[in-house]
Amino acid sequence: MPPSMRYAKCLEKAGTFPKDAFSDALAWRDMGGGPAAEHCAASALITLELYDDAAGRLEDLAQRIKENPAFRARILGQAGQAWLLAGKAARAEAVASAALSLAPGRAELMVDRAQARAALGDYRAALGDLDAALGRLPPAGPARADALVFRAAAKRFLGDDAGAMADAEAALGLDADHPDGLLERGILKRLKQDHAGARRDWLRVLETAPASEAARAARANLEKMDVQAR
After folding, report:
1. Residue 204 lies in a domain
2. Which residue among 170, 188, 204, 230 is least enclosed by CB atoms within 10 Å?
3. In sequence order, what DSSP letters do the residues of 87-142 get, joined into one string?
4. Structural domain of residue 220, as residue ranges?
């Protein structure tokens, strides 16, 4: 099997059968699989929710890649995502910045750094990254919808509820059942005392994405609203 095909199959397996993919990747690495094998192993660890280990491996791998800045930026971007999932937002922000120094203007890396900055409470800096990213993303598609929802949340924390609602509506215009978009719009409706509208959005999240983090948050918001209404 050509190395490129083996790499693609390993990454696919890392998302579905991560334990097997991790074992396969280590065996491949020991047979000279190089960075591709190491990247697959770290990707499998992310699926297994071993975020600290995955992020450390990815950062180490990126430091050893010299001849391919684009691939190095990709690996650092993934490391930043893993650090954020591990709850280490400052490390995630630093790694995303390092990735952007290798690939200036790459929209997905700006979105990654914005998420880290928001987790650190720096919503103004997050908004700057998201404005720049949205200027580079295509006019439709899941990446744009995600970025609009992230920007809506940043604007809400900065007190711009009208701007936040415009972004949430724009995201839902691209994907009417975007779980985080529905969650965010529900929060904004709740802030406007539109309890019925908030309930509709949050119930829709529970209906369309019951296992998601957005559903967990929607359920908590519904319970809180019901308690306050008593």
Report:
1. yes
2. 230
3. T-HHHHHHHHHHHHHHSTT-HHHHHHHHHHHHHTT-HHHHHHHHHHHHTTS-SSSH
4. 152-230
